[in-house]
Automatic annotation (TrEMBL):
<dbReference type="Pfam" id="PF04024">
    <property type="entry name" value="PspC"/>
</dbReference>
<protein>
    <submittedName>
        <fullName>PspC domain-containing protein</fullName>
    </submittedName>
</protein>
<dbReference type="InterPro" id="IPR052027">
    <property type="entry name" value="PspC"/>
</dbReference>
<keyword id="KW-0472">Membrane</keyword>
<keyword id="KW-0812">Transmembrane</keyword>
<feature type="domain" description="Phage shock protein PspC N-terminal">
    <location>
        <begin position="3"/>
        <end position="59"/>
    </location>
</feature>
<keyword id="KW-1003">Cell membrane</keyword>
<keyword id="KW-1133">Transmembrane helix</keyword>
<dbReference type="InterPro" id="IPR007168">
    <property type="entry name" value="Phageshock_PspC_N"/>
</dbReference>
<dbReference type="GO" id="GO:0005886">
    <property type="term" value="C:plasma membrane"/>
</dbReference>
<feature type="transmembrane region" description="Helical">
    <location>
        <begin position="33"/>
        <end position="56"/>
    </location>
</feature>
Length: 66
């Protein structure tokens, strides 16, 4: 399995949806739609996105750490 890191290409904002899409083997568009639909439900989805944006390393920084 690949390490979870925000890609440097194909990201719109922070790259969180693109990273999750790559990790789970789906398209980033599908992951973005799932995220937007989940925001209609009550819960801390937006806060989770911000936390992942802060906690997940960028792909170029993750490569140098290996």
């Amino acid at each position: 399995m690949s390490r979870l890191a925000r890609p440097t290409d194909g990201r719109m904002m922070g790259g969180v949806c693109a990273a999750l899409a790559r990790r789970f083997g789906t398209s980033s568009t599908t992951m973005r739609v799932i995220f937007l639909l989940s925001c209609l439900l009550p819960g801390p989805q937006f806060l989770l996105y911000i936390a992942l944006w802060i906690l997940l390393p960028s792909e170029d920084k993750a490569r140098t750490a290996w």
